[in-house]
Amino acid sequence: MAHLVTDYLNSLISKQVEDNGLVVWYDADGAYAGALAALNLPDTAVLRYMGSFIQLRWEIDQKHLMDGEGAPRLVLYVPMAQDQTHHALIELEAAGVIMQPGQQPPARNTRLAVVARNALKGVLTDEALAEVEKQAEAGKLTLAELDLLADKGRQPSGVLALIFGTGNPQELALSFLVSDRLDENITKKDAKHEQSFCGETLVSIRLITRPSPSFVSASPAMC
Length: 223
Known about the structure:
- By secondary structure, the chain is α/β, with parallel strands linked by helices.
- The chain has helices spanning 4-20, 53-62, 90-95, 112-120, 126-137, 143-152, 159-164, 169-178, 183-188, and strands at 22-26, 45-48, 74-78, 97-99, 195-198, 201-207, 216-218.
- A hairpin with a 2-residue loop joins strand 5 and strand 6.
- The two termini are 30 Å apart.
């Protein structure tokens, strides 16, 4: 399976390492905690803050990463907000660059919704891309789920495909009709009004709130 969004993230970080050497990467939401092992950054040390800045500095010293005259090829991943560090890494920030959600210039902005939007351009339809960006911004899609969406490409059901395990509109409708076991996941991911394109047919799946059995209507329309 491809990891398109993770690979795009990797390219952003790699570019900053190539241009600046040292990258201090803040991730307050921990959105990328699971991606560190998947990063491919040749000749680059990747260290993670594990609750102690003293320990992090000790690791840097042990590896002699700051002994040279220029900035090292080093990524420091810090799963907390920059303003919560009390400037503990200020000299390292000054020696390199900062990557974090909302950081400028845009190439250093690691907000998950922004990374997903840029990675999935040309893979999803504009409508699907806008919906994915909205859900990522709301924290309803993880990096792993975004990679799955990218892998499914232009399959019609987007987030619903993640929930039901299929992108086929007919299979989606049938799965929804015969079981309510995934209703909670649908609600959590706000997939109630998702629209999808399948060839020349627009399939609109509308979920009706119920105490009784679920209903779904598939309304074909010409694109």
